[in-house]
Design brief:
By secondary structure, the protein is of the alpha/beta class. It has 7 helices and 7 strands, in the order αβαβαββαβαβαβα. It catalyses: AMP + H2O = D-ribose 5-phosphate + adenine.
Length: 243
């Protein structure tokens, strides 16, 4: 005769007192959620009206600085061309990007987007964001930038901008994004690419391939960046089924 089980209820319960088993349940559940999110983010509209450009840059450079005014002019020029502008939604050059977009089309809220991060400092939403998204972690926020953007422009920035640049660069390197320009404005980023090329392509101890350094496109100024976006946008428009 079979012995009756001592537990009650469903047969596959995992008691919290069994930490190893409980941890396995949590890890499997989180992995399943990640897989579900990854599947859902593969979906896209068959066509869109506007090409979306994300501008990455410093939260520290304020209105009145040369960089701020140049980024504002950059975003205005792209919006006038027919692009939507995405920024990190915060102050500094992120605000400059949203301000430039709103100056061209103040009634179209979707054309000035902010993807913000919840931080205890410096990341209040700037007043020029028309449509906002919020994230509790950098991981989900970075993913949002990647799936929302048709092009990236990196203007002067710090460690956060470097993180955003690096992720876009790697996704392009490994073929998880295609035909998505990564444009680096100014000498500081040109120096970064030169440093990377020097140290990663040393003969006999190569850490990358020569073609990896053709992925980021240097632009000496905002006019060059606008020209590059115009060319990419024209190619993109040819693929859209816009009625």
């Amino acid at each position: 005769m079979n012995k009756k089980p001592e537990s009650f209820g469903q047969s596959n319960i995992v008691p919290l007192s069994d930490e190893d088993a409980a941890t396995e349940v949590i890890e499997n559940a989180v992995t399943g959620l990640w897989n579900a999110v990854n599947e859902l983010t593969r979906l896209r509209r068959s066509s869109r009206q506007n090409y979306r450009v994300t501008i990455f840059g410093s939260a520290r450079l304020q209105p009145g600085t040369e960089a701020y005014e140049q980024v504002k002019k950059l975003a205005a020029g792209l919006t006038e061309m027919g692009c939507d502008i995405i920024s990190g939604g915060g102050p500094g050059l992120m605000q400059a990007a949203n301000e430039g977009a709103q100056s061209i089309d103040p009634e179209a809220l979707d054309r000035s987007v902010g993807i913000r991060i919840d931080l205890p400092f410096e990341q209040s939403l700037n007043p020029f964001v028309g449509k906002a998204y919020g994230h509790g972690t950098f991981f989900s926020r970075l993913h949002h930038f990647m799936i929302a953007s048709d092009a990236f422009i990196v203007v002067p920035g710090g460690i956060g901008s470097l993180l955003e640049l690096s992720l876009a660069w790697q996704l392009l390197q490994v073929g998880q994004m295609h035909n998505t320009p990564l444009i680096l404005v100014g000498k500081m980023w040109e120096g970064l690419v030169d440093w990377s090329r020097e140290w990663m392509l040393q003969e006999g101890s190569e850490l990358a391939s020569p073609e990896d350094f053709d992925i980021p496109h240097p632009a000496a100024n905002i006019d060059e960046a606008i020209t590059m976006i115009r060319e990419s946008r024209n190619a993109w428009l040819a693929t859209q089924k816009i009625s």
